[in-house]
Amino acid sequence: MTRIAALALLAATALTSPAAAQSLGLGRGLSVDTGLGVKYSPEFMGSDNLDASPWIILRNSDADAGKKDGISVLPSLNYIGKRDSSDHEDLRGMEDIGRAGEFGVKLSWRMGDMTSYGAIRKGFGGHHGVVGELGAKYRYEVSDQLTLWTGAELGLGDQDFTGTYFGVDEGESLAGGKPVHNPDGGAYIARISVEARYEFMPNTALMGRLTYGRLLGDAGDSPLVQTRSQPSISIGVARRLNFRF
Are 116 and 148 in contact (CB under 8 A)? Predict the structure, then answer.
């Protein structure tokens, strides 16, 4: 999986060159919504309590009306907050996990109002696994200012990732009394979502997202999981940046 991540990053570098952009139908420009907000999501993966954390907004604005169909490539970023076992009685005996950042690439293909995508990222800090998503979104243009999307995606992670957040080793089992659990990599969560973008000023928008996730397979079977249901709500402000090649 690490080799796959390296190849994906090399491919993204090549694809973002002017010649590659033209050959893929990307044209000579790209619009990106970038900003920051707050996300209310489970305190840890599998928790049944919600907590606030930063929401890093980075999305391809070319999915908006007036843009051509075709392929686009963007960086893919994610942040996972720390997990302190002392903060949660249900994590007694588990090792702490530090804050994790994830960096990689996202490849999108737009066909009319439908956009399909795939993303792959490498973790740093709290985990060093490889994660990503496969999904699709449908755009609905309510007005010149308001755009809505509905979507569905599958979250993927290698064994390093799932073992970090859903695994229980022998030492943790002895300390906390939970059974040993060594989850395999693969699809660990399925999500459906509704997103909104309201442009209240030129090139400045209020962003919102409501998501419901369901933990799958070995991840959902972890003795650390209090509930397989993983809802979240996010809100923030983003600025549209336009780039020319």
Answer: no
